[in-house]
Amino acid sequence: MCGIVGYIGKKEAYPILIKGLHRLEYRGYDSAGVALINTQGNLNIYKAKGKVAELEKFAEDKDVSGHIGIAHTRWATHGEPNQVNAHPHFSESEQLAIIHNGIIENYALLKQGLMKHGYTFRSTTDTEVLVQMIEYTQHTSKVDLKTAVQLTLNQVVGAYAIAVLDKNNPNTIVAARKGSPLVVGIGKDEFFLASDATPIVEYTDSVIYLEDEDIVTLELGKEPIITTISNAQKTPEIKTLEMTLSQLEKGGYPHFMLKEIFEQPQTLETSMRGRVNVDQNNIALSGFIDNKERFLNAQRIIITACGTSWHAGLIAMYAMEEFAKVPVEVEYSSEFRYRKPVIHKNDVVIAISQSGETADTLAAIKLAKEEGAFIFSICNVVGSSIPRISDSGCYTHVGPEIGVASTKAFTAQVTALIMLSLCIGKEKGTIPEEQYLQILQDLSKIPEKITEILHQNDRIADFAKTFTYAQNFIYLGRGYNYPIALEGALKLKEISYIHAEGYPAAEMKHGPIALISQEMPVVVIATRGHTYDKIVSNIQEVKARNGKIITIVTEGDTLVSQMSDYCIAIPETAECLTPILSVIPLQLLAYHIAVAKDRDVDQPRNLAKSVTVE
Ligand code: G6P
After folding, report:
1. What is the mean pLDDT of residues 433-457?
2. pTM of this prediction?
3. Residue 354 CB less than 6 A away from ligand 1
4. Is 488 helix (H, G, I), strand (E, B) or coil?
C-alpha cells in the first residue's frame, strides 16, 4: 500500500507534500517521511515513526525549504515500521532519494549483488535496493537519471510506484509505475505526483494517469516526458478530474466514516442517476447494454473481490441466481488467483473493488482475461487499474471514500449489482415483469428510506455505549441478509477491535451457540422475508441461553422487537434490497462502539484502505 506524493514548481514544496500525505494516510500510516532539495542544493530527508503528524513534529525545527520534494506514508511490508525503514531512502552517496509503494520480490538477490560492489544498507526494506541500483547504474553506465531508473526497473520483479530525486539535478523528478497507481498533476509552472488524485485536486484538475511500465520525467519548464521501461515514447493523455475539494473534507463531522455513512442517501441517488428510470420503467446500465450478448450467453458468472467488496458480491449471488437464473460463484480474489481455477471463454467475471487497485483482485481478473473470460468491473475510483483492464463495467460514483472501513462504497456496490441482476433478468425474460417494476420502484425510494434510518443515529449511539465491555459479538442473518451479518461483524472488528463473527443464522447451532451467555451480544437481522419465521426460532434459541439480543426488524414488527433487548426498525422494501437498508444501523453501531472505546475510527490499527500488495 503506502501513499506517495511529489511536487516540483515555484511554491514551497513542504506544505504541499504534508497536506498530500494527510490525504493519502488512508493508504498506510505506520511511518512517514519527506525529501527536499533546498535552494543551496542540499538534499534533506526527515522521517518519523507513526502518523504524518509525528513527521510534522519531528520536522518542526528542521530546514524544510525547497521547491522540489517527494514524501511517503508507509504501510510496512518488508522491514518493521520504524524510523530507519520509513521512506524516503538515500542512495549510498546520499545523492539520490527514493519513495516506493509496492514490493520488490527479487530484492534479496539484487541486494547481494550490490553488496559485492561495496554498497551498504541502512534499512531492512526492499526499497533501498532500488535506489542503490539506480545509483550504481548511473555510475557504471554513465547515464542520466531517467535511463538509470529504466535500466534498474528492467531488472526488477515486483510491483512499484516510485519517485526519485537527484541532488545533482534539482529541477527534475523521475517516477515510474507497475502494479501500483500513480497520477501526475499538471499545473501552471508546476507538477504534482501522487498515488491518487486527492493531493492534487486543490491545485489543478489536469492529470495524467500513468500506465503500468510508464516512466515519467517531470522537469520544470518542459512538458512531461513519458517512456516505457522498454524505452518506447508515449504521448501523455491529459484527463480532467471530476473530484471536488469538499469531497475530501469532513464537512463538520467528527470522522470521515460518520460523514460517509450520512452521505449514503445522496451517494445512492448519484449512483442510480440516469440508470434507474422510473418514468420509463427501466434500468439502463451502459456497460451491460453494450455487451448484452456476453451476459446472455454466460453459462456462469464468477464474482471476485476482497473484504467488504466480497460481501457485496455474496449478495449479488442471491440476486443473480434469483433474477437472472445463472449460476454464480463468489470468490476471494486471493484464493481464486492461486487455485488454478477452471475458467471458460463464455464465463463472465465480475470484479468488485472500491479502490480499483486491490492487488489480488487485479491479479484475479488478469488471470481470467488470459483464459478469455469477459471482465466486468464495479469500482469507485475512476481511472484506477481494475476498470482500465476490464472489458466493461460500471462506476459506483460515490466520490472519494476516506474512512478505512468501507460504508458508502458498499451500499453503492450492492445497488449496482442488483441493477445488473435486474438488467440480465429482464433481457433473459427470467424475472416476472411485475416483480421487476416493483423492485425498480423500491430502488428509487432507497435514498429516502436510508434518511429515515439515519434519524435513529442518536438512539444507536446511546445504546452502543452499553456494549463497550463486550469481548465478542455474533452477527446472524439469513438469505440476502447473511452477507450483512458478515459485513456488520467486519465493521465492528475493523474499527473497535472487538472480536466479531458473522454466521448464517441456522448454522449457529453447529458451533457458535456454545459461546452464547449473558455476556455475549448477538445481533440478528430479522427483517420480513421468506425466512422470517426461521430466524424467529433462531432468536428464541439465543434467548433461551440468555444472550443479549440486538435486532434489525422491518417497521411495524412487534414479535421480534418484544424478544429483543435493543431493536432497530428499518422501512419495508423488496427483499433483495433489504441489505442496503439493514447494513446502515450496523455501520452506525460499529462506529459508535468504536468511538465509545476511543478508537481511531478513520485509521484503525494495522489496516489500510487500498491493499496494493498481496
Ligand atoms: C481493505 C479495506 C476494505 C476493503 C478491502 C477491499 O481491506 O480496508 O475496506 O473492503 O480492502 O478493497 P477494494 O478497494 O478492492 O474494495
Report:
1. 97
2. 0.83
3. yes
4. helix
